[in-house]
Specification:
This protein is α+β, with helices and mostly antiparallel strands and 481 residues long. The chain contains 15 helices and 17 strands.
Length: 481
């Protein structure tokens, strides 16, 4: 298949926007509330109600579209997308079809060591549907309930061009979109809560052909692993059909996670099946160019470009840059530390290893962390000046993480100042030499590794406060070499 067929993939990505209220009413959007407690006649689709557009949702949609290099339409409108499903209370979804909010964009992303570009057909606004609840509502497994809390939550749909040529590349692009939306702050992209998901379209065509093959759609996926596995299965399934002289059917398929196979759900609908027509209860959207310019001015440096700058400007490895730019908040924290210390690699090491370990253990994000960039910088300065050792620094960091005290307060209160008096260290080393004649003799006979044991004994006696550089220096003077 690798040489006979070319894979063509396009993604339709859905992201719930992080607004406090829904797209057309004032109901809250808080995830996890009791079923049907965040509803009103508008989001329940009662007759005679009138929706009103959430301006913040429109702003977030424009911001996302601009970040993906889309053109913003000065005039756009909402449409009714008609289909019947239990979680769609009105029997139609308010979306955008013929005149979307934005169009003709693209997003650059990293894949396989290269900068790639995928076209973005459009970014438009629509409302989410409700949710069927199959578990925990009754003792009868054949009964499902409907929770309308999610109904009318604002969504953006990002329609990608069919520019992706492998399942792995599709995931790279999907991850890149997620990073961008998180950096913008327009969506939390929480996949476990269903606020970031996609429909993946895949087809095969003979290598060298310009004509697209018949595609299948993998519906409503919210797992990177599952989408990649489903696409890989579809590649093999479609290739087998074509090799045997058959025809691929255009249809929507579901992914069976346990068996790791796709199965048919329904014949794929076309646009005319949804009977789109203009939403009569909402006026068209006319966007002021000055407002678009104002929104554009608030766009942050996007993650891929920030990673590249970190490598170039701070001379840190690509791995470090990827770790530190995983979230906008972490990248901001790191840059503030570097601004104070002017030591990018030392800051990177402390953040990536020690501070991140504390955050993970506590289940905290960097925004919740009591260790400020100034705390970290002051502690690094104390280590460089010899006031404390690197080992003591770890203890100091742990205490700051819990209490929020300054490094100076922690060191003073716990008596952690490093011992750098040579005569004091020399007296302790004499005690260690006297108490450990066998390791001392082994060292003098050429087994240099035992110096680690001897240094450890000094650290034990001084509770880790002896200056390790001086300890090693004095040991070498006394033991030779």
């Amino acid at each position: 298949m690798a040489t006979k067929y070319e894979t063509v993939i396009g993604l339709e990505i859905h992201a719930e926007l992080s607004t406090d209220s829904k797209l057309f009413c004032n109901c809250k959007t808080t995830f996890g509330a009791d079923s049907n407690t965040q509803t009103c006649p508008i989001c329940l689709g009662m007759p005679g109600v009138l929706p009103v557009l959430n301006k913040r949702a429109l702003e977030f949609a424009i911001k996302a579209a601009l970040a993906m290099n889309c053109k913003i339409a000065q005039f756009s409108k909402f449409d009714r997308k008609n289909y019947f499903y239990p979680d769609l209370p009105k029997g139609y979804q308010i979306s955008q079809y013929s005149l979307p909010l934005s169009y003709e964009g693209y997003l650059e992303y990293e894949f396989d060591g290269e900068i790639k570009r995928c076209g973005v057909t459009r970014v438009h606004l629509e409302e989410d549907a409700g949710k069927l609840v199959h578990e925990g509502v009754t003792n009868n497994p054949n009964i499902s309930h409907v929770d309308f809390n999610r109904s009318c939550v604002p969504l953006i749909e990002i329609v990608g061009e069919p520019d992706l040529r492998s399942p792995a590349e599709a995931i790279a692009f999907w991850r890149a979109v997620k990073e961008v939306l998180e950096y913008l702050g327009v969506s939390d992209c929480n996949m476990e809560e269903g606020s970031y998901r996609c429909d993946a379209n895949i087809s095969l065509r003979p290598v060298g052909s310009e004509e697209y093959g018949t595609r299948t759609e993998l519906k409503n996926q919210n797992s990177f692993r599952n989408v990649q596995a489903a696409l890989e299965y579809e590649e093999k399934r479609q290739a087998k059909i074509l090799d045997e002289g058959g025809e691929v059917i255009q249809e929507t398929r579901l992914f069976d996670v346990e068996r790791e196979v796709t199965r048919s759900m329904r014949q794929k609908e076309e646009a005319h099946d949804y009977r789109y027509f203009p939403e009569p209860d909402l006026v068209p959207i006319e966007v002021d160019e000055r407002w678009v310019t104002e929104i554009h001015s608030t766009l942050p440096e996007l993650p891929m470009y920030r990673r590249q700058r970190f490598v170039k400007e701070y001379q840190i490895p690509e791995y470090d840059a990827s770790f530190l730019t995983a979230t906008r908040q972490m990248a901001d924290y790191y840059e503030e530390c570097v601004k104070l210390s002017h030591d990018p690699k030392t800051c990177s090491n402390w953040i990536m290893v020690d501070l991140s370990s504390l955050l993970n253990d506590a289940g905290q994000s960097i925004e919740e962390c009591k260790v400020t960039p100034k705390h970290l910088n002051d502690m690094i300065k104390m280590i460089k000046s010899g006031a404390i050792s690197g080992k003591i620094g770890k203890t100091v960091l742990e205490e700051i993480f819990v209490s929020g005290k300054t490094p100076q307060q922690v060191v003073q209160e716990k008596g952690l100042i490093q011992i750098s008096d040579e005569s004091e260290i020399e007296d302790i080393i004499e005690q260690v030499i006297t108490a450990n004649p066998k390791p001392v003799q082994q060292y003098r006979e050429g087994k240099k590794k035992v110096i680690g044991f001897l240094v450890g004994q000094v650290m034990k006696l001084t509770k880790g406060k002896a200056n390790p550089r001086l300890v090693n220096k004095i040991f070498q003077e006394k033991l030779g070499g």
